[in-house]
Amino acid sequence: MTFPRTYHSIKNFIVNQTLMLASEAMIIFLFILVILAYNLNISIEDTGYPIVRYLLAVMLIFLAVRISSYVFCFIGLRRASKEDANFKIAFYSIVITLVLSVGSLVFMFNKEVSSISELLIILTTMLSEIYILDGIRSLSIQLGHPEMDKTGGVIYAVIITIFVIRTCVSVVILILDDNSATVESSVLGIIDSTLSIIESVLFLFYFSKAIKIFQKE
Q: Where are the domains of the chain?
């Protein structure tokens, strides 16, 4: 029994998570720039300052990297969905995540709408991660590798824990809706992105183990 489509899809998932990791690092850098601009009493809308131009440049690079990560994930899930139904559900979750991400960017200066969109993005992202995880766990068992199911179970628990923490952080950011809370919101944003980086590292670890198993088969 072999699952060649899933094997090639895992390669896409590895690229996806690598790009996601890079994009979250960029978000942390963006929040640091926002804090610096706030401390210097510089308005984000004033592009005459170098720090604001740097912020906008990093934001554009971030968008390019994040969109690229979604493309790799789409391709991988589309291919793998033919071998396990979990990947099909993950694909639809990612589509919803992309739509919400676009909405969040459109209303990025409307803090309430943007924060609510971020909450929904956290939820749909978690669902896609869980179903990708379940797909690999299910196929790994069929290939005679139950240890992948156990490792996946541990990562599953970590994902749920991070989801709860990120939800709490996003709710607090939503509450801090006045200008005086810019620094506090940015610090919380850095915490949120750090948690996302931890998730990406865990998935890269899991995918690196999975690709060896599927390659052998």
A: 4-216
